[in-house]
Design brief:
Layout: H1 8-24, H2 32-52, H3 59-79, H4 102-112
Helix pairs in contact: 1-2
């Protein structure tokens, strides 16, 4: 990528890359039904997230979104699984300093969220 600033054409190129991956995707099980379901999921997820973020104009926010997209592409291709990998953190499982409880836990959970899950709601 070219520094922090991403042009519209860079973002559209990334979107087209995701759609090409969706068209050529083969499920790990190699069953036609699974392949079709996963292809539809990839395309629908891309459409939803790109449309949801199309009004973003801040270069840093655009960079964060594109980094998330690229991370999800790489993880999906590596593990042959298009779905986001879950994170498992027990409700009060992060260490805090004395006296800080729920708010500190919520902040730490938000900071511990991987880049490829930023577009998903907190669980």
């Amino acid at each position: 990528m070219r520094g922090v600033r991403m042009s519209r054409s860079d973002v559209l190129s990334l979107y087209r890359r995701v759609l090409r991956i969706a068209r050529s995707w083969t499920a790990q099980s190699a069953l036609p039904h699974d392949t079709d379901t996963e292809r539809k999921y990839i395309a629908q997820e891309a459409r939803t997230l790109f449309r949801q973020n199309q009004q973003i104009t801040d270069p840093e926010s655009i960079k964060r979104c594109t980094e998330e997209c690229e991370a999800r592409i790489e993880i999906g291709l590596h593990y042959r699984n298009p779905y986001p990998r879950p994170t498992y953190l027990p409700p009060m499982g992060l260490a805090t300093q004395k006296g800080r409880k729920l708010r500190a836990q919520q902040r730490l959970r938000k900071q511990a969220k991987p880049v490829y899950l930023h577009s998903h709601d907190e669980t």
